[in-house]
Specification:
InterPro entries: DUF1835. With about 350 residues, this protein is α/β, with parallel strands linked by helices. The chain is built from 13 helices and 13 strands. About 40% of the residues lie in helices and about 15% in strands. Helix 4 crosses helix 6 and helix 9 packs across helix 10.
């Protein structure tokens, strides 16, 4: 799996945010071993300590039920990457490669939390985290960059000090908390050492049921796009990726959200025409070639703010450590950036 290469006599482990980036780094003139961290922390339940069996089983069940990720595939991958992480002491330096979106900021905070609980010994930690790149007007992430562009980033990373570890750990512990107040309070923490965290965490909160109609920002944006004649699933995915790029949302999560919005009773959407959602285990791709989407009567009423979707539909969902179910006594006001208690 790894190639045990060295840079200037120093052994390096690069931890990266996805297979696309990992494949390019392996082809680039960047020496060292590559560990692709395969996780999707914005989706489903997370816990402060992610390797405890009972807690892992809760996450395994959720990811298989909602996004079709097979339990055996997920567990095997977790054990494999965790074993490599546990062996970090064999390297002189570890470099974390991340970007500015919520997907990456949560991954980064988890790893900083993990390292903050370990004795580093001789191993030095480094961070490369960017939100733009020269010549790219709409920067989405490291996966956009060519091999040559990634090579220009080599060596530009900065040493991770104790303050970064502490801030990352606080963010992770807040995100993994079952207490909504802690998710809100972390916005007021000093996060200068991780400059992209604040905007990403604000967007995390905007995914929660809103004070206007009980919809999160993903569902709300989908309704708005449909009202503006974006009526095919693939067009919706493209537009959501553009408008909410700071989420770093992948296709499996998007199809899950779309499917949830179209499920009866009290569906927000109607998908007309033959279609299939993706199946991870069968490796089938979604098929939406001859269908379109419209708002149901409930969808129109919720979009107008006449009805609250949580009250109409009910909820049983996870965002980090928050399990949203039963009668929620609060909503999130994104404009005022505060909880509204009801």
């Amino acid at each position: 799996m790894f190639n045990d290469l060295y840079e200037g006599g120093v052994s390096l482990l690069h931890i990266v945010n996805g297979d696309h980036v990992g494949d390019k780094l392996r082809k680039a003139n960047i020496r060292g071993d590559i560990l692709v961290w395969r996780e999707v922390y914005p989706v489903g339940p997370v816990f402060v300590e992610m390797d405890e069996p009972d807690q892992r089983s809760t996450r395994v069940e959720y990811l298989e039920r909602t996004m079709g990720i097979p339990a055996d595939v997920y567990v095997t991958n977790c054990k494999s990457q965790q074993q490599t992480l546990q062996n970090f002491h064999k390297y002189d330096e570890v470099v974390l490669w991340f970007e500015h979106d919520l997907f990456d900021q949560l991954m980064l905070s988890f790893l900083l939390h993990w390292f903050s609980k370990r004795t580093l010994g001789h191993t030095k930690l480094n961070l490369l985290c960017i939100g733009d790149y020269p010549g790219i007007d709409s920067f989405r992430g490291l996966g956009q960059l060519t091999i040559k562009q990634l090579e220009t980033l080599s060596g530009t990373w900065k040493r991770i000090e104790q303050k970064e570890l502490e801030v990352g750990s606080k963010i992770w512990e807040a995100y993994a908390s079952p207490d909504i107040e802690k998710h809100v309070a972390i916005l007021n923490e000093d996060k200068l050492e991780l400059p992209f965290a604040h905007a990403a965490l604000e967007l995390h909160l905007s995914r929660l049921p809103s004070a206007m109609n009980g919809l999160g920002i993903v569902e709300q944006t989908i309704l708005e796009l449909i009202r503006h004649r974006v009526v095919t699933p693939r067009e919706l995915f493209k537009e959501i990726g553009s408008r909410l790029s700071l989420l770093g949302m992948g296709d499996l999560e998007f199809w899950y959200r779309l499917r949830s919005m179209s499920e009866q009773p009290n569906a927000l959407l109607e998908i007309r025409g033959a279609h299939t959602f993706p199946d991870y285990r069968k490796k089938t791709t979604p098929s939406f070639e001859n269908c379109d989407i419209s708002l149901t009567e409930v969808g129109l009423e919720v979009a107008a703010g006449v009805k609250d979707w949580v009250k109409v539909k009910g909820m049983n969902e996870w965002y980090g450590g928050l399990r949203l179910h039963g009668d929620l006594t609060w909503r999130w006001d994104a404009k005022r950036k505060q909880l509204v208690h009801i």
